[in-house]
């Protein structure tokens, strides 16, 4: 503890904390302004069936596009946005824009897969969230079955009962749910069986060192067969190499997402990708 290290350290520690609190507050203000200025936009990353060479979905990943055109990644703002509740208007802004793009691409026949949206616990906890989604989908004439929500395993496990209830509501509407970052959140088989989910997303930390790392290989195979036994779909994220893809295919996981096919792209660039795939697809 800083206190144990004497007066000067304590002074240093407190002033450090103040700096941190100040930075936090200033970021909070900037995020709030950015929401008002409509600066949060969706990027899209394709999810691929690696056997059929077919695009089965697009994951929406938020980016902050500042007035001077800088693109800021979620690591810079998601945590503070979640802590302060700003994630609620932020995510809704991104979701609205993403769904509009998606419906346009569908109409043009560029995609027949799903749109996959990341959902924060705070969002699910809102009493009006279900109503918000339902109204939005009716307004823009979007079939709920075209959507999927991703919720991280650790988020689900920290509020198991409430999350299960909320997820069931969405399921009744026809929206599918995937567990994001699977393998990092300590859920047990017993729970998994009861959750109203239809897909597991294997966390990228298990994919990174495949196929060499033996522990990761065993964990990945276990998750794949667990999904299979429970009747769930499975997708691997963070797939960057042909070797990783080959390992996953050999072990029964055809669905993959990662830099091997594409980084997350803005709407214009993903549209080009959709037009070209799979003809011009160039797995490195
Ligand atoms: P996630 O949902 O697990 O998303 C996967 C992250 O891995 C994304 O980072 C993606 O850009 C990155 N990624 C994809 N393929 C590869 C690959 O082949 N190699 C490597 N090294 N990385 C890859 P990103 O976009 O920075 O997002 C980070 C996290 O922020 C997301 O993790 C998600 O939890 C959160 N997030 C992003 N957008 C939103 C959003 O709109 N709403 C909410 N609530 N959370 C979001
Ligand atoms: Mg995700
Ligand atoms: Mg993930
Ligand atoms: Mg993550």
UniProtKB/TrEMBL annotation:
The chain holds residues 699 to 982 of 982 of the full protein. Residues 24-278 form the EAL domain. This is GGDEF domain-containing protein.
């Amino acid at each position: 503890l800083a206190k144990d290290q004497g007066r000067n350290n304590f002074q240093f520690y407190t002033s450090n904390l103040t700096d941190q609190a100040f930075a936090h507050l200033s970021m909070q203000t900037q995020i709030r302004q950015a929401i008002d200025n409509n600066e949060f936009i969706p990027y899209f990353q394709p999810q691929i069936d690696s056997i059929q060479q077919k695009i089965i979905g697009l994951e929406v990943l938020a980016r902050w596009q500042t007035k001077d055109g800088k693109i800021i990644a979620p690591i810079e703002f998601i945590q503070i946005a979640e802590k302060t509740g700003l994630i609620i208007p932020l995510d809704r802004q991104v979701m609205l824009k993403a769904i509009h793009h998606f419906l346009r691409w569908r109409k043009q026949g560029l995609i027949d897969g799903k749109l996959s949206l990341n959902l924060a616990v705070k969002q699910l906890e809102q009493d009006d969230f279900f109503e918000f989604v339902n109204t939005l989908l009716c307004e823009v004439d979007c079939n709920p079955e075209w959507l999927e929500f991703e919720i991280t395993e650790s988020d689900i496990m920290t509020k198991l009962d409430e999350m299960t209830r909320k997820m069931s509501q969405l399921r009744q509407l026809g929206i599918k749910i995937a567990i994001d970052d699977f393998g990092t959140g300590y859920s047990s088989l017993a729970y998994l069986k009861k959750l109203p989910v239809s897909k597991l997303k294997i966390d990228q930390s298990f994919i990174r060192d495949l196929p060499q790392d033996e522990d990761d290989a065993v964990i990945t195979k276990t998750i794949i067969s667990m999904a299979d036994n429970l009747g769930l779909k499975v997708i691997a994220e963070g797939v960057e190499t042909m070797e990783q893809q080959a390992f996953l295919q050999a072990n029964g996981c055809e669905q993959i997402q990662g830099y091997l096919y594409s980084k997350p792209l803005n709407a214009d660039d993903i549209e080009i990708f959709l037009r070209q795939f799979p003809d011009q697809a160039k797995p490195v």
